[in-house]
Amino acid sequence: MLSKQRVVVVGNGMVGHHFVQQLVSQNQADEQFEITALSGEDRLAYDRVQLSSFFKGKTADDLALTCNKTYDDWQVRFHTHSKVVDINRDTQTVTTAKGELFEYDKLVLATGSFPFVPPIPGKDREHCLVYRTINDLHTIKNSAHGSKVGVVIGGGLLGLEAANALKQLGLHTHVIEFAPQLMGVQVDAGGGRLLKNKITDLGVTVHTSVATEEIVEGESCRYKMCFKGGKTLETDMIVFSAGIRPYDNLAREFNLELGERGGIVINNHCQTSDKNIYAIGECALWNNFIFGLVAPGYAMAKIAVGHILQDTQQGTLQSTGLDNKADEFSGADMSTKLKLMGVEVGSIGDAHARSEGAISYYFEDQPNGIYKKIVTNSQSNKLIGAVLVGDTSDYDNLLQYHLNDIELTTAPEALIMPLAGEIAELSADDLPDDAIICACHKVTKHTIEQSVSNGCIDLASVQQSTKASTGCGGCEKLVQNVISSALAKASNTINVVTLNEPVKQPA
Length: 507
Prior knowledge:
Blueprint: E1 5-10, H1 14-27, E2 33-38, H2 60-63, H3 68-73, E3 77-79, E4 84-88, E5 93-96, E6 101-103, E7 106-109, E8 113-115, E9 128-130, H4 134-145, E10 149-153, H5 157-168, E11 172-177, H6 189-201, E12 205-208, E13 212-217, E14 223-227, E15 232-235, E16 237-240, E17 244-246, H7 249-253, E18 264-266, E19 277-279, E20 284-286, H8 294-320, E21 336-340, E22 343-349, E23 359-365, E24 370-376, E25 383-389, H9 395-403, E26 436-438, E27 443-444, H10 445-453, H11 459-466, H12 476-500
Parallel strand pairs: 1-2, 1-7, 2-3, 7-19, 9-16, 10-11, 10-16, 11-12, 18-20
Antiparallel strand pairs: 4-5, 5-6, 8-17, 13-14, 14-15, 21-22, 22-25, 23-24, 24-25, 26-27
């Protein structure tokens, strides 16, 4: 009997846990792997996407994605407080800061990223913090107890979530952004302008095109922030949320290939320059790009699992002549839908209309604080991007047009301006069977329909069966639409069969 393959996963964030979950599901029948998960934190995986809910009353247990019992049931060995400090590629071992040594046949680096703190003089003061982990949240909460004013440096997605946290803690909150607009990656200038106005109306003061030069002792507050141009702002605490950097130090120290600006270089199978070491999630650099959302990380985890399975089974397959070609990672869609301080924001595809020949259509309802933009190709028959601020009710519809390359059969403006013509809203029946309904877990329409056929007749059971809408949750409405459509088809089939049954003649 062949010995089990030893798979060691370094990092137990959302992506590292997803890898474990995927490998366990493939390992149940053959039990061909011995899985070890190493967490540098003092806890197992939790939902970083929902961190801000901690300040609405959710506990660390509420955010947990797994627990000791689950990993025990899965026969996954796990260790917390186990930050890996050494990789010996010759002996295929890793060592933690506590001196623990683990042997591997396959090593998976899911180390994620860390907050970028700009090199501002004074940044190391006691109440200058970051927003990244549950422990960070506890530190922010403790600092807020003796504070009246809080500042977030960074006006991106995470920065606005951090600002929301400070506001919920009762602080007079400011956001400092070096760029001329908020969320410059996800939304265009028009959407950024409206977003700034809406957040300002909620009581958060937003400063754009501002560069912090120094943090010094304050007069009325703990600190004084000195900006380029001479302006200042006093605050009691500062939270840095100015972007992330890949946590690639292990690759850097132990001679795995890195990108020019960081990130562990991977191929289409998520292998690094060492064929027995994989990298997934925010630490990985694919095609010179780092994906900062959880859905691409989940896709990488699935690809890595498939390739490890293929590699493990290769000898058996060669002897039988069977082919087991693993899927390849080919990039990921970076569309996202979220709610920041109650403000709905959606971004799809080429939101900035940078593609050659791109055409943009705009709709703005200033009294109701709504901004919508769609971007089409030069023929105006394919949707390639969109921005939604203040109302994301069209998001699911627009995303399906984009993801599935569906041709527009009505005027493009009708997608965001219903009064301009027929509302071009897609139903589940309009989508192809291979349409991706849940981007986080890559769940297709066909998979959901199969789940319904197997007896899952409501959202909860389909979620449990397929994982659809259990990631960011943004696709829940569309998942329900597919379920309803599948149930209706099943009901019609039953009716047709019943009507076509031959009538029995009396004896």
